[in-house]
């Protein structure tokens, strides 16, 4: 009797653009996604020019961005992503907000000390986009 064929679980490999001036913070975000079991390919952008290039060449399926970037704002990052693909999931991750500060309206906002919530949020958002097609 032949052994039953193993059923491999297909997990999509998602391309995620990490927009952050801190290499350490970008690596922590990628680590949080992988630790949660997501199959991801990540690329980092620190400037508007790098982000535009990555949107065109890397073709990310989601963006995780810091709110406060030197010489480049989270609002600008969100506008670039929306101009490239209005439905692309976009999540802000920040170390904190000043009293009364309101970040631009994205699909999600997390504090950097709550990165365990990043993978479930991004997976839900990206699955929703896939379901539309």
TrEMBL record:
The modification 4-aspartylphosphate is found at residue 66. Residues 15-127 form the Response regulatory domain. Gene3D superfamilies: 3.40.50.2300. One of its GO terms (biological process) is phosphorelay signal transduction system. CDD domains: REC. The keyword Phosphoprotein applies. Keywords: Phosphoprotein. Pfam families: Response_reg. PANTHER family: RESPONSE REGULATORY DOMAIN-CONTAINING PROTEIN, STRESS RESPONSE REGULATOR PROTEIN 1. This is Response regulator. The lineage of its organism: Bacteria, Pseudomonadati, Pseudomonadota, Gammaproteobacteria, Lysobacterales.
């Amino acid at each position: 009797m032949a052994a039953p064929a193993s059923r491999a679980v297909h997990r999509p490999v998602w391309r995620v653009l990490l927009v952050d001036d801190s290499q350490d913070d970008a690596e922590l975000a990628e680590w949080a996604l992988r630790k949660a079991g997501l199959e991801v390919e990540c690329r980092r952008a620190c400037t508007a020019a790098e982000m535009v290039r990555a949107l065109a060449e890397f073709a990310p399926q989601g963006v995780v961005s810091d709110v406060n970037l030197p010489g480049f704002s989270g609002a600008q990052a969100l506008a670039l992503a929306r101009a490239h693909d209005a439905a692309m999931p976009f999540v802000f991750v920040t170390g904190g907000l000043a009293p009364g500060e309101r970040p631009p309206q994205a699909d999600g906002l997390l504090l950097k000390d709550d990165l365990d919530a990043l993978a479930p949020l991004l997976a839900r958002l990206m699955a929703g986009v896939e379901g539309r097609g």
